[in-house]
Amino acid sequence: MNSISILQRYGIYLLVLVAVVLFVYILISLIQSFSMEHADRKIKEDRSEGVANNIYYFVRRTTLQQIQLSLGILLSGILIAVLIFCQVYEPLIIVPAAAVFFTLGMISPWLYFAAKARKRADLFRNSILDLALGLTSGLRAGQALPQALEVFSRRCEGPMKEELTIVLREYRLGLELSAALQRMYDRIPCEDLQLLIISIRLTTQSGGSMADVLAKITQMIRGRTEFQQKLQALTAQGRFEALAMALAPLLAFLLLFFINNDLMLPMVQTAIGWCAIGIMLTLEAIGYFVIRSIVNIEV
User: pTM for the whole thing?
Assistant: First the structure.
């Protein structure tokens, strides 16, 4: 009788597991189809600007939403499995923790691609001084502005080469050069590029020596670039301290958990322990963003 009851119990568990898997599969399919339709509608209705536009340079909107949904479900599923392995069966603990990890999974892909977009934008901004120097040299050598842009685009690398290729392609298709440069600024906003575009537009409309104007703009951009580099060097220690202070409690918790898990198990097996973890993570996040806001100096 004992063996029969055990078999019945495991059979019920198996049926429940199959039912849950089918329900989750149907729910994921419905959410993905809805999100893809919504994303396609958003692409047709509006045009993304700024950081979002740079993010979608690396990944399509529909693909990003699929990655977010899949990673959120994966992380919440892993957390539920870990909690069950640690003999935590209370729904008041499992459900909020799974919801938090699902939210983290939804946010993480966006943060990853946003970081890639910021890196690409930084590489582009670091090339603005080279662009100004190249245009000045080309104009003083007797080249027209489109020819100077084309010559410089052959020598440069990275995001600047990609963006200048788009600008020259639009110019050949009939768009004014100043408008094509303005569209490049709309894709990757940069104050130094805006100064360069305004000087080119005003000199083209009012006349004068564009080489001399660009030479003065180049000196201004060089001074701004040197100041930004000094500022980044002075605030590097503060940015490292923010990251170290945020990661130190997590590393200490993992170290103590592996050294003496009997001492740390109540943190993950009780509601009070999870409340303490939630409060700790909230305070750590607040401290990290406060320090980052202090060392992030806008000029």
Answer: 0.71
